[in-house]
Amino acid sequence: MAFDRALDPTVDALNARLRHATPQEILRAALRAYPGKLALVSSFGAESAVLLHMAAEIDPSIPVLFLDTGHQFGQTLDYRKVLSARLGLTDVRDLRPAFQDLALKDPKADLYKTDTDGCCDIRKVQPLDRALREHFDAWITGRKRFQASTRASLPVVERGEGDKIKFNPLANWSKADLDAYVAEHDLPPHPLAAFGYPSIGCWPCTKPVEEGADARSGRWSGSEKIECGIHTPRAAHPADAESIGDGI
Ligand code: SF4
Questions:
Q1: Could you tell me the distance, in angstroms and rounded to a whole number, from the CA of residue 197 to the centre of ligand 1?
Q2: What number of other Cβ atoms are within 10 A of residue 3's Cβ?
Q3: Of residues 119, 120, 205, 228, which has the active-site annotation?
Q4: How far, in Å, CA of 56 to CA of 58, rounded?
Q5: Which residue is closest in CA terms to ligand 1's atom 3?
Q6: Which strands form 64-67's sheet, in the order they lie side by side?
Q7: Is 120 known to be catalytic?
Q8: In the chain, where are the structural domains located?
Q9: Residues 20-55: pLDDT tens digits?
Q10: Residues 5-242, CATH architecture
């Protein structure tokens, strides 16, 4: 049975409670609402350190899911290790594409040249959906409203893909807020941030941007694509349809 997103008392109640809460209050509420069933999804990109630091201060054992697409920058893989160790995160999990998807759909690892949506689907969307479906009821993202027009009305809590609850603790935060937090806690930057990469994904689809330009304009630049697809609405997997809890 499909979930009716227009009538969603769980999301409405959580949003009413958390709309004006601090990111740390939102993280604590999420952990209380979904004990053992909550994950934080991180790209270990240019702005990831803030949310990871906040989460580690509250619960360093929170599962952190990293989409290891096979096309990440080497600097991102290094940063993932350095930052995880520095913050004391104890459960960082790498999500990888299914072998059969790579063999059938991208045997030469060059699908990104002809079909970026298809490439993101097998390297990002499907691995994340599998992990969420098998282990979690809710997840945390690092998205902010200021990042892109597609995120301008981002709520603090929403019903996400596969009907999982999604918390966006930094939705209300500005770039200045992030910069101040990084400075206050002396968080290490992503190695590519100093080279004009304010938003960092896979190397074939990320370019540096000019000073002052939209931070995400270097992602899939020259194409219409602006999101990888993990936040794009899609139907719940049949296994999820009968197990939508309220989690409050
Ligand atoms: Fe493939 Fe580019 Fe998507 Fe990475 S961002 S999964 S390389 S299309």
A1: 16
A2: 15
A3: 228
A4: 5
A5: 120
A6: 92-95, 64-67, 38-41, 138-140, 165-167, 157-159
A7: no
A8: 5-242
A9: 999 999 999 999 999 999 999 999 999 999 999 999
A10: 3-Layer(aba) Sandwich (3.40)
